[in-house]
Write a structure and sequence with these properties.
It is built from 15 helices and 4 strands. By secondary structure, it is mainly alpha-helical. Helix 3 packs parallel to helix 8 and helix 3 (45-72) crosses helix 12 (258-271).
Length: 356
Amino acid sequence: MFYRRAGIRHFRYQSERQLWPLTFDRRLIQIVIVLLILAPFVLDRLYVVSYLLPWVIWSTAALGLNLLMGGAGQIHLGYGAIMGIGAYTGVHLMRAGLTMEVAMILGGLAAAVIGSVFGAAALRVKGIYLAMATLAMQYIVDFTITHFQVISGGAQATLQVPASRFLGIPIRSDAGFYFVALLVCALVTSFLLNMRRTSLGRALAAIREKDYAAAVIGVSSFRYKMLAFWVSSFIGGVMGVVLASCYYKAVAPDQFHLNLSIQLLAIVIVGGLGSVLGTFFGTALILFAPIAMNALISDLAGAFGLALSRDLESHLPLVLYGAMISGFLLWEPLGLAKLYYNLRNYLLVWPFRNAR
């Protein structure tokens, strides 16, 4: 089979610590990268703008949340507010004449500063109490954005994103916005994949498992919890700018409500806490499962001649979607990533039953 460790010999520590030691893994990653790059040239614009672009953006945003929840074990129910802070900061800077990449960095920094202030609650509380603290942040930011016209222009106002340049290149086409989002996604993904092998990743893992035990062995809980909130908020702020400038092309208060935070939280949980690959799987499921269920119910109703009321037709997909999520978590609590690794581990030893 494709998955085989036979013939792989490590003579250096660098080769042993590489991200993908199996040849099949490396080939698979190369194929995925090539397909993502070629997508705007071979797929219809509707599929790129309506499906592929939001999948890339939401996956990258969920990676930032997964760094905090799966990496450091700190729950966050206000990540949509973090993205809103970055989005409004970045859009105002772009309207002032700054380029897109500068607006991303400064928007990320603004979100990191404010997110770290609220993240300081993690130094004293944890679990459900930290969840309530971050939820309070969501409502505070929502209120501030809505009622301060200098920020949003009003509760019903929409700020259009002006034409901008990225790395000196004018971005005007849908393919250009897609490649900007894809580049940011590649940078964030590479950072998280490599972070787990560093001292920072090991320190966050120690805090996630037992923070006071980590303090006994010299890991500063204060330093690394604040650092986790800072990095996670920075990624969220950057992705807020990307979401507003590359997908919505505008920013409005209703884009960053609690619904966005819950959606990102569901992506992380369904995909798998601490899993980079699972985040992409979870995003695909959360974003596209309702669309597929709507189409499936309509087709089945037409095939069997069922006359569904408009109210039932609109709510039945949501009921089935919620039941699917609940059943999936009962069946595999570790998320979609665990299903993939189960299959992968089975192929590693196939045709034998197991390996010790």
